[in-house]
Amino acid sequence: MTQAVNRVALTGNKAAAHALKLARIQVLCSFPIGPSDEVGEETARMIQRGDLDAKLIELEHERSTMNAQITATQGGVRCAFATNSEGLLIAAQQLIFASYARIPIVLVVAHRALEPPAVVRTDDHDTVMYRDIHWIHYHCENAQDVVDTLIQAYRVGEDPNVLLPTFMTYDGWEVSHNSYPVELPTQEAVDAFLPGFQLPADIDFVKNLDFAQYYSGPRMSGYGYIDVEREYMERRFQLDQALNVTAKQAIESAHADYRRLNGRGYGGLIEAEGLEDADVAVVSMGSLAATSRYAAQLLQEQGKRVALVKVRAFRPFPGDELVTALKGVKAVVVLDRNPVAAVYHDLRSAMFGQVDAPIVLGRIAGLGGRDVTFYDVMYMAEEAFEATRRGYAQRQHAWHFETIEDETMLARALAR
Q1: What are phi and psi of 317, to 5 degrees?
Q2: Angle CA(43)–CA(106)–CA(153) in degrees, nearest 5?
Q3: What's the pLDDT score for residue 18?
Q4: Helices 143-158 and 247-262, interaxial angle, to 10°?
Q5: What digits encode the pLDDT tens for the residues 30-48?
Q6: I want to staple 94 with a disulfide (CB 3.0 to 4.6 A). Which of 7, 66, 201, 233 is the partner?
Q7: What is the CB neighbour count within 10 angstroms for residue 221?
Q8: 60-79 tens-digit pLDDT
Q9: Under-70 pLDDT residues of the chain
């Protein structure tokens, strides 16, 4: 095992830039939007200093930047682009194009809440809203997670059996601009893990995107038609299998190989702590996982059996893995930092029909950057304990607005 020797303090954004350098990207596509812009700025400085052998392409908006990244990747060049929120909205058509054309781009996203009203703080709705377009979604909790996951994201997406685009995400400001201790892997370790980008020899994006060759009938305005019954649906099935079967396997395999090389692991699709004898589990993503971990530790010190489950890959959704991990738990509280309770609803769907399934509570919290303290998580975990005592949840799905800042506020909230 090659041990990391370079220990530094990095923001989440600068950690992403260092990971891009270690991944040996060849093109940086750039258009600024906060809080993601520091990724492009730091990577551009590396290029200008000669630390990274890559080309910088600055464009006029996110749509053209995405087009540049798609085109370069189709040419066999490993690229990078960092954006979020309104930037993703501007590039929506290209996002769909990239996945359905099987183009393995990677987007670094420091989450930012969507407007209106205007806000620059975080929640994860800007990528969660694209949960149904067959992208891989990674959610990171700190800068170390960002470094390790971004390197893995390139390997998984570029796998010839996967060939899918990836959102590699973390919370804006809370992770993007806070500094963390980070161990950077050596270039030798990354090179051993992540080979140079090379598209499969038999891939032909023209065939993937222009179906004219499959149709012998009339054509109109230069566009080819396809035999819908024979081609279109089959291609969508292949895409779905690539995400929900092959990518799952690739994520687990990449995680295991990376751990062997660098000694750090995050559980693959999910990371679970303390499930052996837990009555209640807290399920969360991103930086909420770090807050939830500490809350669980405090509750354990009080003699309460609480576990943490971190969803690392939201797509492909680890439904089977969560069902297996949560067997024996009496109640689960799912924390969503988006207004559609995406993880809660997906987990409820996965649990449907399971024998002796736990009670599942969903809580929406922290939208638009509202603080979620470990006291808040303790309160929501106590709601799950109350559900186990009753045998059902009084409020199965709810919004948590309050910010609980100390033990006195927590005691008052629990007494209500």
Answers
A1: -70, 130
A2: 100
A3: 98
A4: 130
A5: 999 999 999 999 999 999 9
A6: 66
A7: 4
A8: 999 999 999 999 999 999 99
A9: 1-5, 204-230
Tokens for 186? 């050596």
Q: Which residue has the tokens 């990836």?
A: 166
Q: Which domains are present in the chain? A: 6-201+240-262 (3.40.50.970), 270-415 (3.40.50.920)
> What does the chain come to in residues?
416
- 248 Cβ partners below 8 Å, 6+ apart? 269, 313, 316, 318
